[in-house]
Every structure is written in C-alpha cells, then in structure tokens.
Design goal:
Blueprint: E1 6-8, H1 19-31, H2 46-49, H3 53-60, H4 69-76, E2 80-86, E3 90-97, E4 107-110, H5 118-130, H6 151-170, H7 179-187, H8 192-204, H9 208-221, H10 226-238, H11 242-255, H12 260-269
Parallel strand pairs: 1-2
Antiparallel strand pairs: 2-3, 3-4
Helix pairs in contact: 1-6, 6-7, 6-8, 7-8, 8-9, 8-10, 9-10, 10-11, 11-12
Length: about 270
Amino acid sequence: MAKPKCIVMPFREANASGIGLSLHFLLGNVIAVHTGFAECWFGWRVGKIFRSSENLSDYIRMQCAAIDRKKMSAEQKIRCWIFGQMEGEAVRLSLFDRGKSAQAAPESFTFTVRDDLIGFRKQFIEWLGRCGLPMENHRRPMALWPERTSLLGLLRLGQALRYFYIHSAYGGQSRIDLALFETAVNAAPESFMANNLCGWAHYRHQDARSAGRFFDRALALNPNSPGVTAGRMGCAILEKDVEASVHWAVRKADLLEQDVAAAAGKARKRFE
C-alpha cells in the first residue's frame, strides 16, 4: 500500500522577514524522516500550487486569501498539509488531513535558537502524534539534530530559500545567483539547513564539486538527512561515478528503511 504524502507549506508572516520560511524548511526536514509518509517536498510543487512568483509572495505576506485546502489536496493528490502562521516567537500550526472528516485544532508553538531549535521540533513531533500521525520513537533522534543558527541566520536562510523557490519554479533557464546562499552560510556557518540549501544552489549550476562540498558539510552536521543524501547522489550522477551513485542511493534507502538492494539496482540502471 502506497504511503500518503505530507507537504509543509511556507509559513505566513506579514513582514516576510524570512524566519517563517526557515522554520517551514526545518519542519520539512523533520517530515522527511517520518516513515509514515512518502517523500514530498514543497520545492517540488511550488509552480503547481502557485501560478506565479507574485502569487507565492502574496501568500507568504498574507496579502491574499488562504488556500482552499480541500480543493488543493484533491488536485495535488497530497493527503496531509501543514500550514503555519508566524506569531512573534511562535508559530501557529494547523493540519489538513484529507483522510479525516474532522480536523485537529490549530496549536501555537514557541521557538528559540538558544536550544538549536530542538524544543520547537519536539513540540511539533508531539503535535503530529496528537493529530494521529505519530513518528516512531526510534526515528525521533533523526529529526532532532542541533540546528546551530541565530535569528539573523534564519532570516538570511529564509531570504535565500524564497529566491530558490522562485528561481526553481519560474526562473526558466537563467543561472541562479549564489550570493544569497553564501550570505546565509556566512551568517550561520554551522547551520545544517544553510549548507544544505547552498549545496542545492550549486547543484542547479551543475557544479558537482562545489555542491558536494556543501552537502558534505551539511551531512557532517546532520548525517541522517535523506534530502542531502539524495543531493550527494545527484552529484555522483553528474560526475558519472557509478559506485558513488550506488553508495549514496543505498545510504538514502537505509535512512528511509527502504529496500537497499532495489535502490542499488535502480542506481546502476541509470548508467546502462
């Protein structure tokens, strides 16, 4: 039986500082290690959910109506949607689960960078359980890596992430400007998320060497990331390195408790 998909939408904030987008990215990486869901990143769906960059920006800045959850869920064939709205040093989260007639009540959760955002994620994981979507206990440590950042680091990361989404969905064939991503890393050099995103920006340039360097930094900070492991596999494919591609495919499958032999076979088949 196929697993349902769950997508974390960008968190809305009137001033669009970028912090809300960073926290959205944080929880997206938590959902990525929740084995109750199939892999589904917001970044894959930006252009399907929002017709233009202006629509996306208006949504984030709370300058348009909220999304019709039931309609969007049916159109995108995604069962669970996590929405958030910034409230100072808290985020008000709500869940839409197309598989249920009654929806869980929204709840607000505080966040602080002083504990590496671990407390915020613990609250989120407990909330998922109350919503009937529990994360298995042995998976929880994988979602609680120390995210070493600051408020400035979150702000810079969010600005880079917004640009990344817009460029990916609406930028056509134009080259991505790396400045925002490097600024995010400089603001928080030990941030898993900043190094992760910078790796993907370099990957968009087809620069496997630079992307791999940032992905390796990200994995040193959080070795249990299936998203970054996929990025590392992508670099191996760009470099036409069969054995490295198989290595990273197996590692990702192992992280997600999937069939490693099938993953290895699929990776090798790409080069046939």
